[in-house]
Design brief:
This is DUF503 domain-containing protein. It comes from Abyssobacteria bacterium (strain SURF_5). The protein has a four-stranded antiparallel sheet with strand order 2-3-1-4, with helices on one face. By secondary structure, it is α+β, with helices and mostly antiparallel strands. Strand 2 and strand 3 form a beta hairpin. It has one domain: TT1725-like (Alpha-Beta Plaits).
Length: 93
Amino acid sequence: MFVGVLQIDLLLRGNTSLKQKRQTLKSIKDRTRRKFNISVAEVDHHDLWQRAVLAVCCVSNDKIHVNQMLSEVVKFIESNFPIELLDYQIEIL
């Protein structure tokens, strides 16, 4: 069994309040969960309006599948939301 953890550092340009940030992140998390059936949570920069760090987790019996899925999540988030992807890290345990 392999557990994949993806950490994504995001810049949320245009957000002017924490409420707007929460709405943007809720959309990202909900759509990503529905599309990939994975776990997503905000794990850092809770009090900054224009920054967020999301953690994504998935489990599979195939290491290659875990890596491919998390790479697809990165592409999906980067291409479907008004964010700038600053950095990401994939770790497979």
